[in-house]
Design brief:
The protein is an all-alpha fold. 77% of the residues lie in helices and 0% in strands. The protein has one domain. The C terminus is likely disordered.
């Protein structure tokens, strides 16, 4: 396994910091805009930027429509709704539970092998969910349930992407955003109120939630991430994504003044540690330690 170039290490740190700050930006945006409406605006902006430059085929269209529901509507819709009763750090951590859920789904539907190491990692991660759920940082069990549904939507989307025909990553991002807009707009105008008035009176926090999540996270961070995945083995790059929820917890405390109670710290450590156990093959971990040494 080749070592990461110093430039690519900096890019990875930029990406995970960008993802972590995205949760902070969205949390700030929710102070001024309704969650589904804010998400609708985000996807509208992403679609406007990407769709004119990327086409999809008729064969790819059914998969894009399905992903627009599971990823755009369920994953992101439940995430922004759940964030209303959870702090930014807990949101970022709970969303990561989608990784072990995806492993379970892959074992059931794709007949992929679920090794003992992966099973242990999944158990450790889910024990972290139990601990984190009892933390004061989660003010309502409704928010926890929504965030776990969001994570499951991400996991299901991962399985669908594996089954779908090849689609350019930015084309997928753009068209999923495009087809998510009508669903989110309908849900927003059914469940939320005073959207236009709130938009007209939104300050920097509302526009930060929309603009950064669209440009900083969806377009810039994911573009850099996809480029790294093309140059390095996935198992060498994926563990870096686990820095994102840990950084979000730190940023939530530093920027938003969120508490770092014992339950939150232990739950975060168990979830991140469990996922790390599950996704890194033992031999690869040993080889990486020897290489770094």
């Amino acid at each position: 396994m080749k070592s990461l170039l110093p430039r690519d290490v900096l890019i990875l740190l930029l990406v995970v910091c960008g993802w972590a700050f995205n949760v902070i930006a969205m949390k700030l945006g929710l102070l001024e805009l309704p969650p589904l409406f804010m998400l609708c605006l985000r996807f509208l902006l992403v679609a406007a930027i990407l769709v004119p430059f990327y086409a999809i085929t008729r064969h790819q269209l059914p998969w894009i429509l399905l992903l627009a529901f599971t990823f755009g509507f369920v994953h992101f819709g439940m995430m922004v709704s759940g964030m209303q009763s959870a702090d930014a750090g807990s949101t970022a951590v709970l969303i990561q539970i989608g990784t072990p859920v995806a492993m379970i789904m892959a074992a059931v539907w794709l007949k992929e092998t679920l090794t003992l190491q992966k099973i242990i990692g999944v158990i450790v991660a889910f024990s972290g969910v139990i601990v984190l759920s009892g933390s004061p940082s989660l003010s309502s069990w409704h928010g926890t349930v929504m965030l776990l549904i969001s994570a499951s939507g991400w996991a299901l989307s991962t399985i669908l992407i594996k089954r779908a025909p090849a689609i350019l990553p930015l084309a997928m991002t753009g068209w999923i955003s495009f087809f998510s807009v009508p669903m989110l707009a309908l849900a927003s105008f059914t469940l939320e109120q005073h959207q236009i008035t709130l938009l007209l009176h939104a300050g920097w926090r509302g526009w930060l939630g929309v603009g950064y999540s669209a440009l900083g996270s969806s377009v810039l961070a994911y573009s850099l991430w996809y480029g790294l995945l093309k140059r390095y083995p996935a198992n060498q790059i994926l563990p870096w994504s686990l820095l994102s929820p840990a950084l979000a917890v730190i940023m939530g405390s530093a920027i938003l003044g969120e508490d770092l109670d014992e339950g939150k710290l232990i739950g975060t450590a168990l979830i991140v540690g469990g996922i790390l156990i599950a996704i890194i093959p033992l031999r690869a971990a040993v080889a990486l330690v020897k290489l770094d040494g």
